[in-house]
């Protein structure tokens, strides 16, 4: 299966997006959506960030604005089921919901939402305290627990996407954890755990979050190549970063 690229550029940490949300101005969002589609994105991640109740409508605003200029499938990115529901209500086609962890509130609210709407769902391999496991065994344990909850809620394996959580490079064991993420992707892709391959996703920007002036983009490029080699299905990346998209092109040509 060819590597699928999701653009993470429509994120509230992008000042253009933040300003557009404050002023409810759709045009900057639409220009970004056009640019990421032209750059080669297959999906667009819509991430309005943390929203207090009075601003939950920002998710619907972003979805409606982007849908006016592109038919690309969307990923609705929020830890809040109420915010995800706002986006689902106006989505033209079933989006991917991102993400559910082992936190009790998310299991209670996001799983039924995904099941009711028949959407694909990202299972973020974080425990009940929202912490990642450092090693392969812990990540696989989290994957199995999350899968069990998802299936019990009425979802199917075909709807589930596993994100083993890339480390931030400030973490003291970041390089070791990077290796464990690659192993996790390879094992999930191999299909040994429950008899069929599982889809996987990785957010490359996690590596350099807050560190773009400290670490070069080529570290994301190298990580992407390693993960693609392990069988990664979906990469969430800055598609307006030329080096990353060149790496994507090389990976797809090699495949």
Cα-atom radius of gyration: 17 Å
Q: What would the average pLDDT be, to the nearest integer?
A: 95
User: What fold name goes in the CATH topology slot?
Assistant: TIM Barrel
Order of helices and strands: EHHEHEHEHEHEHEHEH
Query: How many domains?
Result: 1
- Shape assignment: globular
Report the biggest beta sheet as strand number plus sense, adding barrel if it closes: 8 strands, parallel, barrel
Strand content: 15-25%
Structural class: alpha/beta
Q: Please count the beta strands (DSSP E, at least 2 residues each).
A: 8
CATH-defined superfamily: Dihydropteroate synthase-like
Low-confidence stretches: none
Spatial gap, N to C terminus: 9 Å
Number of helices: 9
Q: Helix share of residues?
A: 40-55%
* CATH architecture level-2 label: Alpha-Beta Barrel
CATH C-level: Alpha Beta
Strand order of the largest sheet: 1-2-3-4-5-6-7-8
Summarize this structure briefly:
The chain is of the alpha/beta class and 255 residues long.
Walkthrough of the structure:
The protein is an alpha/beta fold and 255 residues long. It has a single domain (4-254), classed as Dihydropteroate synthase-like (TIM Barrel, Alpha-Beta Barrel). It is built from nine helices and eight strands. An eight-stranded parallel β-barrel has the order 1-2-3-4-5-6-7-8, surrounded by six helices. Helix 2 (26-39) crosses helix 3 (57-67) and helix 7 (174-190) packs parallel to helix 8 (218-230). The N and C termini lie close together (9 Å). The model has no long low-confidence stretch (mean pLDDT 95).
């Amino acid at each position: 299966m060819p590597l699928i690229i999701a653009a993470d550029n429509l994120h509230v940490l992008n000042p253009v997006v933040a300003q557009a949300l404050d002023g409810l101005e759709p045009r900057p969002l639409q220009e970004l959506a056009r640019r990421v589609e032209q750059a080669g994105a297959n999906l667009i991640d819509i991430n309005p960030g943390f929203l207090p109740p009075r601003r939950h409508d920002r998710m619907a605003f972003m979805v409606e604005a982007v849908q006016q200029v592109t038919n690309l499938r969307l990923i609705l990115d929020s830890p809040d089921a109420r915010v995800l529901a706002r986006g689902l209500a106006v989505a033209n086609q079933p989006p991917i919901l991102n993400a559910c962890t082992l936190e009790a509130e998310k299991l209670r609210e996001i799983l039924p939402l995904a099941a009711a709407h028949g959407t694909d769902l990202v299972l973020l391999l974080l425990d009940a305290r929202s912490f990642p496991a450092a090693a392969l065994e812990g990540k696989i344990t989290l994957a199995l627990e999350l899968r069990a909850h998802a299936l019990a809620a009425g979802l199917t394996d075909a709807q589930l996407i596993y994100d083993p959580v890339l480390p931030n490079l400030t973490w003291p064991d970041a390089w070791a954890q990077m290796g464990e993420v690659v192993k996790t992707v390879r094992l999930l892709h191999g299909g040994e755990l429950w008899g069929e391959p599982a889809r996987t996703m990785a957010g490359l920007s996690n590596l350099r979050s807050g560190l773009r002036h400290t670490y070069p983009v080529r570290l994301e490029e190298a990580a992407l190549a390693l993960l693609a080699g392990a069988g990664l299905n979906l990469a969430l990346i800055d598609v307006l970063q030329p080096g990353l998209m060149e790496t994507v092109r090389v990976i797809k040509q090699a495949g």
